[in-house]
Amino acid sequence: MKAVWILMGKELRDGLRNRWIISSVLLLGSLAILLSLLGSTPTGTVTANMLDINVVSLTSLSVYLIPLIAFMLSFDALAGESESGTLLLLLTYPISRAQIIFGKFCAHLCILMLAIVVGYGGSACINILLADGSSSGGLNYLWMMVSSWMLGAIFLVIGYLISAAVKQRSTAISIAIGIWLVMVVLFDLALLGILVADQEQSISQNFFSKLMLLNPTDMYRIFNLTNISSSIETYSLAGSADVKLFTLFDLCLAFILWLALPLTASIAIFKRREL
Amino acid sequence: MANSELLSLSNVSKCYGQDRVLKQIDLTVQAGECVVLAGHNGAGKTTLLKLILGLIKPTTGKVSVRGQNPTNKNSIKAKRSLGYLPERVSFYESMTGLETLQFYSKLKSEPIDRCIDLLETVGLESSAAKRTVSTYSKGMKQRLGLAQALLGDPDLLLLDEPTSGLDPTLRRQFYDIIEQKCRMGKAVIVCSHSLVEIEAQADRVIILNSGSTVASGSVQELYQQSNLPLSVQISVQPSCTQRVEQTLSDLIIPIQKSAVTENSIIEFSCNPEQKMELIRQVASLGDAIEDIQIKPPRLDDVYLHYTVSETPSRPVETTPGIPL
User: Fold this and answer.
1) Could you report the predicted ipTM of this complex, rounded to two decimals?
2) In the sheet where B265-270 sits, what is the strand order?
């Protein structure tokens, strides 16, 4: 366990030095503030609170950004070190391969958490101040932050899986971009295509909803829409899913499975890898 | 297992697919011993070190470091007793030299306050230790690499081409440290192409070729086993050149190569077991001989003898229609 902490500390220091932490915070924070300022327009004189509107806006933003940031952190975690030669030396020390992945995972989770808490949290504070101290919708916003972090965690472990499976950084980034494209863009397009093609409605809404669990980004959308039912109409595809089918437990279980399976696979592949 | 036995490899082979990169290697290393692994690139030296470090598993055979299999999950004791300097050592570029050493020191559960002393031991000044590794020269990285290998005073040091690309002064310092460690009872395995450099420190030389051990023993034993000819140079009176040549050939000394230079110097080779006979016959020539020099084969010649002669000869490519 001590080795995990040591590696985690080193990775966090690296994150600070190579400006990953500051750039992630600035990216998420500036976009969240921009969205909250622009997003305040639809609230107008209607009673919809700003934080809920922000949850909807940030959910659609996070679906693209969080997986991208997570992949950028993790795609070369092992392949990059292997290519540069630092992994060879590290493995000669009393640290197991699983500890190396856990150490990096903990550090990258901290970086993501910091970016989300400071970036999104800062934006929430500004919103609350603008709303004369009203924190209505704050819980939904908090859930959105937690689920964003979990979404990032899932893409981190998928990144480690890619990084453990390939030897070169360039291959790892190519695969990561491909997976990002499929999960963030193409998967939904494919589902939409199925919906359009299925004019006789032979695919039940139940089955269709379950298909969405195959993609963590859709799970993330559903998770946040479950909290804010009023915003369902704003999403064409997620709105097609019967969100009431899923309990919080179901979604959490799906999140955990999405975390555990790639993480276990990446450790297993990394353990078998010969340098 | 003897108490002083640190490393044992028994009938170890390693295959990558169809390629057998190591073939039935047996090796034991005792405390205080300096073993040099020599061989061409691709001979299997680095693979052997990786097996000892537990980075790869042997296809057949057994590797044991201080009685533990280094690939086992619980081989912490084995890993703590090893220090390794890779051929191309790489560090995290954003860290300073001191931070790098402290990071590895923590992983080995060693107190970090010894790091500065260690950096001084390998000749890295404190100002350099505070600079990031990205600003280091090749020599400075090698020094830092040696410092990390020395962390925790390991019982067995594995150095893979430690002096390649270094200047002579730095090479000397490296070898002095190796010698010092051996005197302290630590074992050192050095992979090297240049046997001449490390001849003085080597207790045993193992020459690998295409994954097999082709020679093993002390430097002296390798000289004897190779039975390479001595190089003889005789300065003669200009008027006596022909007489000396004739005398030596008459005495049936097996002259393998003979050349008479303009300065009346006769050069030739002879088998080592006939050295004394040669000296006696040369001495009998009296004033005709002005000087004699007998040079034993160089260690590099011994190395080449084992590696070149053992290399499987490539089939000769012929062009149809052109007789060889």
Assistant:
1) 0.85
2) B258-260, B265-270, B230-236, B289-295
Averaged pLDDT score across all residues of chain B: 84
Mind listing the pLDDT tens digit for each residue in B133-147?
999 998 899 999 999
Strand pairing partners for B20? B15
CA distance A3 to chain B (A): 6
Minimal C-alpha gap between B57 and chain A (Å): 8
- B274 shares a domain with B156: no
Domain boundary among B181, B203, B225: B225
- Inside any domain, residue B183: yes
A84–B95 C-beta distance less than 8 A: no
Cα four-point dihedral sign A247, A251, A254, A256: negative
Mutate to test the interface with A, among B22, B46, B51, B55 (most CBs of A within 10 A): B55
Enclosing domain of residue B126: 5-225
User: Of the candidates B53, B73, B95, which has its C-beta nearest A96's C-beta?
Assistant: B73
Question: What tokens appear for A263 in the block?
Answer: 């993480």
Extended strands (E) in B98-201: 156-160, 187-192
B292 φ, ψ (degrees, to nearest 5): -140, 135
Phi, psi of A187 (to 5 degrees): -60, -50
What's the rounded mean pLDDT across residues A173-197?
91
- Number of cross-chain residue pairs from A and B with Cβ atoms under 8 Å apart: 60
Whether B130 maps to a domain, the answer reads: yes
B72 near A CB under 8 A: no
Question: Min CA distance, A77 vs chain B (Å)?
Answer: 12
Query: Chain B residues with CB inside 8 Å of A267's CB?
Result: none
Please report the beta strands in B140-288, taking only residues with DSSP state E, as ranges in sequence order.
156-160, 187-192, 204-209, 212-217, 230-236, 258-260, 265-270
Cα separation, A221 vs A60, whole angstroms: 8
**Residue B33 and residue B97 in one domain:** yes
CATH code for position B289: 3.30.70.260
Contacts of B213 (CB under 8 A, 6+ apart): B25, B26, B206, B207
Mean pLDDT of B28-48: 92
* Distance separating alpha carbons of residues A260 and A102, to the nearest angstrom: 12
What tokens were used for A163?
């990084």
**Looking at beta carbons, which residues of chain B come within 8 Å of A88?**
55, 86, 90
